[in-house]
Amino acid sequence: MKWHFLRFLSVYVLIWGLIHNVSGELGNPYTILGINRKATQKEIRQAYMQLVKEWHPDKSKSPEAEERFVEIKQAYELLSDPDRRNLYDNKGITEDDYYKKPDRQSYFTHSPLDEMFGPHGAHFNFQENDITFFHKLSITTRQFDKIILGKSEKTPYLLFFYADWCFSCLLSAPHCRKLSDKLEPLGINFVTVHTTKEPNLGRRLNIPSVPCLVFLIDGNSYVYKESITNIAKVIEFMKSKFPYKMVSKVREDNLEEFLKGWTDNRVRGLIVSHKINIRLRYLVTAFHFRHRVAFGMAETSGIRAKYQVPHDMDTVLLFNENVSFPMASITMRDIPTSTLHNIISSNQYLALPRLSSQRVLDELCPCGFNKPKMKICVALVTDDSADHDLHRQAFRQYAQKFPYNMEKVRFAYIYHKRQAHFLNALRPEGEYVEPLLRIVMFWRRDTSRVKYDWAPFKWDIENHANNSHEKLAESILRLLKSTENFPYEAYVTDLFDEHAVSLIKKIFINFKHFMQSIYNNLSKEQILPAFSVLGTILFIVAIGYLMAYLVENEEKNIKKMKEAQSGHNNNNSKSTYQPELRLHELKSEKYNGLVRLLKPGCRTILLILDMQSRQQLLPPFHRAVWPYRRNKTLNFAYMYIERGLTWYKELLQMSLFEERELNINPRNCVGTVLSLNGHRKYFCVFHAKHTESKRKGKLSKKKEGIKDCESGAFIGFNSDLDDSESDTDEVLLEGNLLDGLPNWLDRLFEGTTIRYHINYWPEFPIK
């Protein structure tokens, strides 16, 4: 027995020596920092700061400075962590080395001899790996659905999935403790889920195995697939899952643009940090207040110098509409998240916020049924335009200088067109109220019922001119004294959310989350088959597209060959191109272009018709003038006699030498065609009832009272002609009125038609 005991003891001593040899290779942190093993945290920090100043690569010229600086930093990180320091003092190794040893070495490290000869005596030392730590933070599926999922809209959660009798879960306990201690002050809650008791939740979140970390933010879950022992990687993973551009980058060239972006109804928060990468606490804060504050990260030293921020400090500046100086600021080396939340919560609204959503209305003007909880919301109704900027600025200044109880009164403005449904409900029954640039004062008794009153004046820029300040203050004080002073009551619906995500963006976000969930569900063994299936589908689609392209290209080539052959066989054939013939309607806006301002040598062929004869006369007119479509000196138009009767009557009157009134029947004018020469001021007339051959015969038999052959009697508007001489025996239908037009056009271009000269073109009526 004695021999066996000595042999057992020699093996233990050998193992102990090997462990200390390994730890010696890693370096003694106490020796590196030059302190003893009983040094306090304050002494450790003082030694670290002194050595950093001496061995910093930027300050020391020694070639070993960089390596020495890394050793000092690692030694300080080890000794500043109580858990890692205890592990090193008791076992001679760091925590990371403890879990990265091979299985054999890990077995020797946790051998019964350690427990037997250790400081705790002959019992199992599971204080670091106690499973009860997970049980205390465990949640159920019901708690996840009712509480956690809703709160994740503002507060991110880190979920750790574990199971009983899971050795890897026990080994992860110290890291989970560190994660919990590190993340809880930053505003990220750490909870655990027992997969044996809550299997459905594990399947919903696609947990591949235990232990497993899941990051939950804004209702979306992301599975962490790397090692849990590396806390830095876990933090970087969580940073990458925050919404895109949660904190924008601000430089000197876009600083003013960033600060003046408050028109989106959000306060501007400028972060000036002494670290290059954004810290997790700022991302969590920006996510929590994303609906009320837009954050930006300063990237240049010029911004730091402008706001006089120390180089080793962090500063958060909050700006409202006044971008010249911040309304609140905080400067510390490590700003606690709770302090950030307190500062931002007190300054999360602009000096004059806009009622842009139901969320803003609930926060600014909460419901209060009785008088002690009553809050009056005073809102200026404006349009979403720069024309009302001065009115809003004047109202903002008034709100900032309001001398009375600001806890009971909240000033805001509202867009008339965007919130028309809400404002229409606040109109007294039987009365007409023009809401634009008016002030409405209302008290929300509950979510749908409000009592309100309108200010009896419009809010002008020069408010002192009509004593608007005093009148508004009197109205607010009167309403604060008694709830019975509100004369009107109405039921309203929720405000329109002006910041809602568009449908296309929602589809894109959902598609992104879907692809992310697919990626999370695929393991390394499933990635290759998935890519194989996807590649097969893409190959089939590509082959199909290629075949379709080749067929289409072949058809084009055949078509070109046929066209080339037909062109070769018919080289002298005329082109089949047919120029377009456009018919213009003669109106006042086209009168100058068609008549008055015609170039020399150009004429307009004008058809006179009415609405009833349009369908009957336009087709034959189009056929008659079609052969002349290539003539670039001709314009073709038509005129409704109802529109241009006065102009036509004046035109005929000017062609007569006798000053007498013409009695025109508009129906007799239908079917008349005029050729108007705008430059030389004359016109020619075609009328089926009064052809020029008949006209000349009648003029020869006319009485001597008619002095001129071109007196205008040709159209039958001259009352001096005998009724017996009129062509009453001829009956023409509307469809036949233009039968003689082609012959008349031939004579028109031969120059044999009668021309009626005038001194000027009369004005065309404007209707």
From TrEMBL:
It is found in: Endoplasmic reticulum membrane. It holds the Pfam family Thioredoxin. Residues 99-243 form the Thioredoxin domain. It is a single-pass type IV membrane protein. One of its GO terms (cellular component) is endoplasmic reticulum membrane. GO terms for biological process: autophagy. The chain crosses the membrane at residues 527-551. Residues 28-92 form the J domain. Keywords: Autophagy, Membrane, Signal, Transmembrane, Transmembrane helix. Residues 1-24 form the signal peptide. InterPro entries: DnaJ_C16_autophagy_reg (IPR052448), DnaJ_domain (IPR001623), DnaJ_domain_CS (IPR018253), J_dom_sf (IPR036869), Thioredoxin-like_sf (IPR036249), Thioredoxin_domain (IPR013766). Plays an important role in regulating the size of autophagosomes during the formation process. This is DnaJ homolog subfamily C member 16.
